[in-house]
Amino acid sequence: MSVPQRKVVLAASAVIFEGGSVLLVERAHPPAAGYWSFPGGHICAGEAPQAAAIREVREETGLEPEILGCFCEREIESLGPDGSRSTTYQLSVFAGVIRAGAVPVAASDAAQARFVPFAELEQYRLTSGAEDVIRSAWTYLYDEVLQAGLRCGER
To answer: Where in this chain does the record put each Nudix hydrolase domain (predicted)?
Structure first.
């Protein structure tokens, strides 16, 4: 008996901050329809992961983010209709910022898009692990990237 091959998809997403808020989109299509998460999706052939993350933010929200780095790689399993693992997403997750006052407009596969204050995250039906990713992105962005930049600028 042969074991069915799982599909592997390279993908990128971006955790974008504006002040004390994070950019979230409500997914319009399965497998995460109705859940809130970060803009993201597949990486096109020949496309760099960071370029894919920027493209996905643009397509899903109309915004142009400033990406400051890739802070983690994740592997996400998607289940098929029979409950078996059908697709593995190898995800590059980027952190970035957006100019103050930018207003996202949902498009592409996003039903809604908005900046959500950290204190309101528990009011949203987030994809599995999203809140931990937000915390990790915040730590990466502000503790490692921006503070390192400030230290370099002080010399």
So the answer is: 7-140
Nearest to 148 by CA among 139, 43, 104: 139
Q: How far apart are CA 139 and CA 144, in angstroms?
A: 7
Buried b (16+ CB within 10 A) or exposed e, 24-61: bbbbbeeebeebbbbbbbebeeeeebbebbbbbbeebb
- Specify whether the CB–CB gap between 96 and 16 falls below 8 A: yes
Bridge partner list, 14: 94
Residue 80: Cβ within 10 Å count: 13
Q: What is the DSSP letter of 34?
A: T
Is the peptide bond prior to 104 cis by the omega test (within 30 degrees of 0)?
Answer: no
Q: Which pLDDT tens digit goes with each residue over 90-100?
A: 999 999 999 88
Q: What is the pLDDT of residue 155?
A: 35
Contacts of residue 118, defined as CB under 8 A and 6 or more positions apart, other chains included, come to: 20, 21, 22, 134
What local confidence, expressed as pLDDT, does residue 19 receive? Answer: 87
Q: What is the DSSP letter of 42?
A: E
Domains for the chain: give ranges and CATH numbers. 7-154 (3.90.79.10)
User: For residue 74, what are its two tokens?
Assistant: 């994740």
